[in-house]
Design brief:
The complex is a heterodimer.
Chain A (H helix, E strand, L loop, with lengths): L1 H27 L17 H6 L2 H34 L5 H13 L2 H14 L8 H25 L5 H7 L4 H30 L15 H9 L5 H25 L2 H4 L7
Helix pairs in contact in A: 1-10, 3-6, 3-8, 4-6, 6-8, 7-8, 8-10, 9-10
Chain B lengths: L3 E10 L2 E11 L4 E5 L6 H9 L6 E6 L2 E2 L10 E4 L11 H11 L4 H14 L15 H13 L5 E5 L7 H18 L2 E6 L2 H7 L2 E6 L2 E6 L1 H6 L4 H6 L4 E5 L2 E5 L5 E3 L7 E12 L3 E8 L4 E7 L12 E6 L5 E3 L5
Parallel strand pairs in B: 3-8, 3-9, 6-7, 7-8
Antiparallel strand pairs in B: 1-2, 1-4, 4-5, 9-10, 11-12, 12-18, 13-17, 14-15, 14-17, 15-16
Classes of the chains: A mainly alpha, B alpha+beta.
Chain lengths: 267, 329
């Protein structure tokens, strides 16, 4: 029993380190005074009230819109890309792989600076803001979507498309009736990862915002420069709950766990 | 149901020749087996017939109609894959219905034909299960029903028994062969298992290195092999050089005795090893002159047993000696 209790202690410690800050942040948001004290003194919802004002809701909605669109576009782009990379050998395949997966290794900061300069030199300065952010987010979200879809393509049983063809399914019919249903989880997982990645990004977004067009993460960072108010704690909790709720609800419907842990056996 | 005809069929991958010019006519309703070691081109040939890839040269005709240019989904060919390739997201019944749905049949007709097909392979009542909830043998039957329900002109079976355990494999051999004869469907069966080929086939085409070595009935192939490769690949064979001729004697046709036999082929030798096979005893001999030979003696209670080291006569009646034809030019 001894090794197990040691292991349990380690696991508990990890959870405390991971969840502790979140618990503290949540608690701080209920402080009565405007001092960020922990444990909180008194109880008040005034910071939460303030968190739900336009000042904070606008960037939150902006982030949601941005993440939804970025997830949608990168998933749609990832589908044909994943097919090409997973199924075909063609000249330039290595280059395409590097281009697609590159942003995964590159600090988003670098991508952000690069995009900023690109938009400036291209004389497209007026697109800095939502459009530039969307382009940047698609670039950094694409690798996640391509990876998960490619993984689900690799887990397809071999011969399954040939079987569909032998039964009279054209390539389009085989894709629609056999391949897409089987890689559905991968597509959904890719889209969710892309959404979460876009929603939580701050490094890239920092360079591409303009007044009135900034995601919640950048807004939080900007506010932090003036100090920490319990409002920020409330906003942080809200910002945390959005991706959490998304992942939890998708997980219930289609089993993201496959992609977070390991692909389940398919027969 | 139709005749299948392959003429000068070739498949090359760059410099590699997978199928090196095959001529083969499978008669209407015939059970034809492509038998050969792995890499002999049998599965490639099957893929060419199914249309999974295009031949480098040659023609394929089904019922007199050239099909080599057609995509697989227009060929009306049923295929059972080695790994079954069932659709994991569909139930057994939906798997069977797939080909009918692609043919846009009415829902009523689909459900009738799916039920019939599942009955045919004795899976009535399991239609709602998904492939993962079925045993290997049941998956095999679903794959068979799925291929048969579209009433294909030709049925192709790609080593469909190799993933089953021994007992089930032997059962399914007989079952598939019986079903094929009942439906009278032209069938091409690919296997590397000579036992399967001998039991199930009307005729066997033995393949080696992309070519067909011999086409014939199971007894033709076993008793009158056209080449040394066929003789060695199917069953076991003792070979003896006799001048320019090569004599071949099956181990179960050879005899052992202490006295020299009166007539036929005979050589003296020493018993080197005796293997107990249950139903038979296998004697491994070293003959005078250094040749090795194997004799299989049925363990029928009458057999005289010889100890290792015994000096014995290896012999075979004249009709048990087969002369391998000289290599054709």
């Amino acid at each position: 029993m001894k090794p197990w209790s040691a292991l349990r202690a380690v696991v508990i410690a990890i959870y405390v380190f991971m969840l502790g800050p979140i618990v503290i942040t949540a608690a701080v948001s209920f402080n009565q005074s405007n001092r960020s004290q922990f444990p909180p003194r008194g109880f008040s919802l005034q910071w939460w009230h303030r968190a739900f004002s336009a000042e904070w809701l606008d960037p939150l909605v902006f982030s949601l819109k941005l993440a939804l669109l970025a997830a949608l576009i990168s998933t749609l782009l990832a589908l044909p890309l994943a097919f090409a990379l997973a199924r075909h050998r063609f000249p330039g395949r290595a280059a395409l792989t590097a281009l697609t997966l590159g942003p995964l290794m590159l600090p988003a900061l670098v991508t952000g600076v690069g995009l900023l300069q690109l938009f400036q030199y291209a004389g497209a300065r007026e697109y800095i803001g939502f459009t530039a952010l969307l382009v940047g987010h698609v670039v950094i979200c694409l690798p996640f979507a391509v990876r998960t879809i490619a993984i689900s393509l690799h887990t397809l049983p071999p011969n399954i498309e040939l079987a569909a063809a032998s039964l009279g399914a054209s390539r389009a019919a085989a894709l629609w009736h056999v391949v897409l249903p089987l890689i559905k989880t991968g597509i959904v997982a890719g889209a969710v990862f892309a959404f979460v990645h876009s929603f939580t990004d701050v490094n890239l977004s920092l360079f591409l915002v303009r007044p009135g067009e900034q995601p919640i993460t950048v807004k939080i960072l900007g506010f932090l420069e003036y100090g920490f108010a319990p409002t920020l704690a409330a906003v942080s909790v809200i910002t945390l709950l959005v991706p959490l709720a998304l992942v939890a609800s998708v997980e219930r419907v289609s089993g993201l766990g496959d992609f977070i842990y390991a692909a389940r056996e398919r027969g | 149901m139709a005749e299948l005809r392959l003429a000068a069929l070739e498949k090359r991958y760059g410099a590699t020749v997978a199928v090196a010019g095959i001529d083969l006519a499978v008669r209407e309703g015939e059970f034809m087996t492509l038998l050969g070691p792995s890499g002999c081109g049998k599965t490639t040939t099957l893929g060419l017939i199914a249309g999974f890839f295009a031949p480098s040269a040659g023609s394929i005709q089904i019922g007199g109609r050239p099909v080599a240019e057609l995509p697989p989904f227009r060929r009306d060919i049923g295929v059972v894959f080695q790994d079954y390739a069932l659709f994991p997201h569909l139930t057994a019944a939906e798997n069977v219905a797939f080909g009918l749905r692609m043919r846009k049949l009415s829902a009523a007709e689909i459900s009738t034909r799916v039920r019939e097909a599942l009955d045919l392979v004795q899976l009535a009542g399991l239609g709602e299960r998904r492939p993962l909830e079925l045993s290997g043998g049941q998956r095999q039957r679903v794959a068979l029903a799925r291929a048969l329900v579209i009433r294909p002109t030709v049925l192709l079976l790609d080593e469909p028994l190799s993933n089953l355990d021994l007992k089930l494999r032997e059962e399914m051999r007989v079952e598939i062969a019986t079903l094929q004869r009942r439906l009278g469907i032209t069938t091409v069966f690919v296997t590397h298992d000579q036992g399967e080929a001998l039991v199930m086939s009307d005729r066997i085409a033995v393949m080696n290195a992309g070519r067909i070595e011999q086409v014939g009935t199971p007894s033709d192939i076993y008793e009158r092999p056209a080449t040394r490769f066929v003789a060695e690949f199917i069953g076991r064979m003792n070979f003896f050089a006799d001048g320019t001729r090569t004599l071949a004697i099956r181990p179960e046709r050879a005899r052992l005795s202490l006295q020299a036999p009166g007539e036929g082929f005979a050589r003296r030798g020493t018993v080197k090893q005796v293997l107990y096979l249950g139903g038979a005893l296998e004697y491994r001999l070293e003959l005078e002159g250094g040749e090795r030979a194997i004799v299989e003696v049925p363990n029928d209670g009458d057999a005289v047993h010889y100890a290792e080291g015994a000096i014995v006569w290896f012999s075979a009646a004249r009709e048990s000696c087969y002369e391998i034809p000289a290599r054709r030019p």
